[in-house]
User: What shape does this take?
Amino acid sequence: MPQLIASVEGVEIRHVYLKNDRTTLGRKLHNDIVFDNMIVSGEHCVFELEGLADVYIEDLGSTNGTYINGHMIKSRQQLEDGDIIAIGNFRVQFLATSAPEQPGFQKETAAMSLDALGFPGTSGALQASLKVLSGSLAGLEVPVVKAVTTFGQPGVAVAAISHRRDGYYVAYMKGETPPTLNGQPIGPEAIALAHHDVLNLAGTEMEFLLKN
Assistant: This one.
């Protein structure tokens, strides 16, 4: 299945499998992929799936443009495996097929919606997000919208945040540099997250936030 891997300064922030005929990207919340940054237009671009694996991208008249491998696209264009889409400081890699599933790890595409998880009054019923604290995109807030969401830089440091009935948990998955939580190394055993916890992934600090 075709997929998109979005990153900011080398840190993976979203992993989306293209299952629908149309997948929209933009700053407004009604988009399928939301980048909450002013450099991104409200409705920036759209990915269209034809057949089983042919994916086309089209800019929707965005202010700052959509680039593929360094070139601004002027019209609807078919994506090739490994293409890099640039929208401001965001990078989105297109992969024509899914990577093999890791044994024992629940992929985020099997996720339920947040509304279907969590008991009222518990942290599991709250909306979670990660706020970037360091680098040029400090202040950017990335919502955690899957039952299992991976963050990090492949080969360097990757962590998974899981949404359970009683709250959110983080665990170290792979990479040469284990991430830290509030300055303490994270292991493979899941650790409960609390409001204002600080996660460090390969030098990028992100604050975990919970909202009603």
About this structure: The CA atoms of residues 3 and 18 lie 5 Å apart. The chain is about 0% helix and 45% strand. The radius of gyration is 17 Å. The longest strand covers residues 157-164.
